[in-house]
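Hi R.,

Here's the chain you asked about this morning:
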Amino acid sequence: MPKPNFFFIGAPKCGTTSIAYHLERHPNIFISDPKEPHFFEKEIPRGITSLKKYESLFSNAKKHHKILGEASTGYLYSETAIPQILSYCPNAKFLVSLRNPYEMAISLYGQALRGQYENQNDFNIAWKLQNARRNGSIIPKKCSSRFLLLYEERCSLGDQIERLYSLVQPENICIVFFDDLKSNPANLYAKIFQFLDVSNVSIQSFPVLNQRRSIPWSFLTNTVKSLGKVKQKIGIYQSLGVANKILEIFSTSNIDEPGISEEVWEDMDCKFVPQIKKIEYLSGRNLDSWYYFRNTHKTMDMNN
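And the predicted structure, written out as tokens:
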């Protein structure tokens, strides 16, 4: 049975859905459906747990598919996923997409709020609750894991990249940036195709996928979640598109944008500036614009 040799490991809210969409349309690349099986991630209970079911996701790959991959965005954050992947596939290739950690934290919070596993409608409160939540306190009933609410840790991309390089040979790692997906997507995909040693195909359009949307009625959010659970119980892991149709019909593009307090901005600076410096050092990329994110975003941008 075919086995994956390529892992798009995150980070979440960094354009992974859009990138995976284009990768799977390359004639030599096969991406699993669902694209995020989460098989090697143990910190957050979700996804596929059976090796047989996991490997079956790649059973439809053909001889012309040189690259077989998946895109579970929790792998970069996980402390156990990369070692397990290397044990499973020692020569695995890893793709990472990175985003300004300030922006990413805000985006993750918005996702948690819409998913109803975050119950604080004020980002300032949610940020300050992280210490208590690390210790298992003040966790909403609908939250399956406290890790989903630890925005600082999940956005500590410098530490995560450092750990990745300590485990994987540099030639098997490709780092791209969400900024480039927005400003120069053609070059971004050319870099990825070169890394994967496949032909550089021409992409005519670059639709933005998985944009943040809010659902005005909580019962619809619960319906979408229930559909996913029922599918897994009866052994269906592929996307049927029903949940996306519900989102398209009932969701809205904008939600409230409460301001971030100066106290929280300063704490985010304390946590994220060292992370940005570490990414600059490891990637060789100048990220000056990331340091000044707070100067141009006095309110939370919940729409990306």
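The CA atoms of residues 27 and 65 lie 7 Å apart.

Let me know if you need anything else.
M.
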